[in-house]
Predict the 3D structure of the following.
Amino acid sequence: AGRDPRGEYVMIRSEVLSLIDRAEGGADLTRDELACLLSLEGEEQQALFAAADRVRARTMGDGVHLRGLIEFSNICRMDCHYCGIRRSNRHVRRYRMAPEEIVAAARGAHRLGYGSVVLQSGEGDALDPEELAGVVRAIKATTPLAVTLSVGERTREEYALWKAAGADRFLLRHETADPELFARLRPGRRLEQRVQCLLWLRELGYQVGSGFMVGLPGQTVETIADDILLLKKLNVEMAGIGPFIPAPHTPLEDAAAGTVDQTLNAVACVRLTIQDAHVPATTALGSIHPRGRQLALACGANVIMPNVTPGKYRIHYQLYPNKICLREEPEQCAPCVAALILGEGRFVATGPGHSPRWTA
């Protein structure tokens, strides 16, 4: 890959197609090669998407796994510049679901046919570690659901407690692989701390999910290439990629948002780089484009996370504005998501949707 005088990547069409073919075949790409693919437009971009979709079909099949998302608290001790529920945002009405409410929501997800649930919250202490372990035990004792936790940076002992309680997976997005950008966006925190948590989760036997935002102020295609290479180094079982969406009442409220094309290029490159990972079509992408999730399914994604949080709570869990499905109840979302999947020529997968590395 070469650069023009403006610093943009330029390759002739035959070189681009050859690079895409190598990526589809599982070749390890360099940072510059990934940056080139992340910059594609037009016909070359469509070739990238088609290759990612072929890899998805070959490695993960045509099923789309549904993971019911339970946002059980928006209490957060962090003050991240990009997040709508940051500690300093006084415009947020804070809430905490009771343990029995969380378990009831999980059972509701099972009744709707979902194979797993994701218990997500701000990085706070809405539930103490033993309470959360009790919730996990109750879900595992009364349903066949796989349980993913997404509660941020915690101690190794807490992660071990929840694993022993029956948690199957943990989702901790690294957000950006640029240490300086990470420190600017997450005051008082360092990227190395985040990565250490991911390494602990791996050591403890979790199926590990991570990911990043696309379009952050100060981010470049090289930064995004580093994000993808970090995910590969961590050998994640799930990689979540969504656009940066500026949130009101945050330091970045006037920043430009990430774009659909940027995000889809990143989704496709992640599929080509970590071919057997689960890749969600994120709600954030569906919030900036009416067919955002469908577009992601066509370029490598194979997971959707319908919201099963009770309606009275979900309106208060807004990491970014204009989030879709805020005023729908879980029973309304299920047929809508199923229709979306069938409309793309795919089918709703059954079972817990474990990583193929766990079931091989």
